[in-house]
Specification:
199 residues; alpha+beta; 2 domains; five-stranded mixed sheet; 5 strands
């Protein structure tokens, strides 16, 4: 006896569509002689699988978003040791570098501290006002001036500025900042020494 295709009512078709089945899926199963109950059970199973896949996708998306937010708020290395070419070898965390004693300018550029080495900061903190002769990399000399401003109440330095010519023939061959500062500090120390007796 040959099977007969069922004719679905509008209500039955609507129930199957509510399960997420498409018209194409429904009529394909009808053409293959499945009953409404069989198609309904397949639709329920398909609906459960779809719900699980969507739940997994939502869970994955939530975990990915949470992980991204955590990384943004708390980087992988929350206590960065602060080791750089500008720090002590142990890093800023273990051994913070000194601060500049006051506002300090090299020519017209402020020394900010964060991009100055430990040695540069320590030497800058030892500079004294005056005029100095610094040796350029070609052996010639250039006059450098250390100008200071003092706090009217404490009399401590409030601003230090190092100036030297940088135009024309004086534009090139300047020694590194640390070399120039060492020369200035050495000359200032010599000036503080009492003159030799009988000189």
């Amino acid at each position: 006896m040959a099977k007969e295709k069922i004719a679905l009512t509008d209500t039955e078709t609507s129930e199957l569509l509510d399960l997420g089945m498409t018209f194409g899926e429904i009529f394909d199963l009808v053409d293959r002689f499945y009953t409404f109950d069989q198609i309904f059970k397949m639709g329920q199973a398909q609906s459960r699988r779809r719900a699980e896949v969507e739940k997994d996708a939502r869970t994955h998306q939530a975990e990915t978003s949470a992980s991204a937010m955590k990384r943004a708020l708390m980087p992988e290395n929350p206590r960065h040791p602060g080791i750089s070419v500008y720090s002590h070898p142990e890093g800023e965390l273990k051994r913070p570098k000194p601060s500049l004693r006051c506002e300090t300018f090299w020519l017209n550029s402020p020394m900010e501290g964060d991009v100055d080495t430990v040695e540069e900061i320590e030497l800058a903190n030892l500079l004294e006002p005056g005029e100095y002769l610094c040796t350029k990399s070609d052996g010639s000399k250039v006059k450098a001036t250390v100008e200071v401003e003092r706090d009217p109440v404490t009399d401590k330095y409030s601003k230090v500025r190092v100036m030297f010519p940088t135009r024309g023939h004086q534009r090139h061959n300047h020694a590194p900042k640390t070399s120039m500062m060492r020369e200035m500090i050495a000359q200032a120390a010599q000036r503080r020494q009492p003159a030799a007796v009988g000189a």
